[in-house]
Write a structure and sequence with these properties.
Number of strands: 0
Number of domains: 1
Strand content: under 5%
Distance between the termini: 39 Å
Length: about 120
């Protein structure tokens, strides 16, 4: 896989942030998306996700964007998702939680893995 100017640290932060926003630890998240824990742990340690895994994430998490995950491109993310991601990042900066810990559960976070009802 060609990585070029790939921002590995940004990727690691975003992949962990995605899981935290869904309020899951690594074991829970791996089971949720149907991957072995060890494989998911490799991703969170900087190994690029495969296309197959990206398709699985898109199937399981309606708001997932591989452009956001790999490159930080937020154009495909809704305003509501962006608000949740910013809130999680702000909480991390304030030391309220660290990478790997869960966010406080909210009604919005409980439904992140599901499509909103119309």
């Amino acid at each position: 896989m060609e990585t070029g100017n790939w921002d590995k640290d940004g990727y690691i932060k975003r992949i962990q942030l995605m899981r935290r926003v869904l309020d899951m630890n690594q074991t829970e998240f791996a089971a949720f998306v149907g991957l072995a824990y060890k494989k998911w742990n490799h991703y969170e340690n900087g190994y690029p996700i495969s296309r197959e895994t990206a398709f699985i994430l898109k199937e399981k998490i309606y708001w997932f964007s591989s452009d956001w995950l790999w490159h930080g491109d937020t154009r495909a993310l809704s305003g509501g998702i962006m608000d949740q991601l910013r809130a999680a990042e702000a909480a991390e900066r304030k030391g309220r939680f660290k990478i790997g810990k869960s966010l406080p559960i909210s009604k919005v976070q409980k439904t992140f893995g599901k499509r909103p009802k119309k």
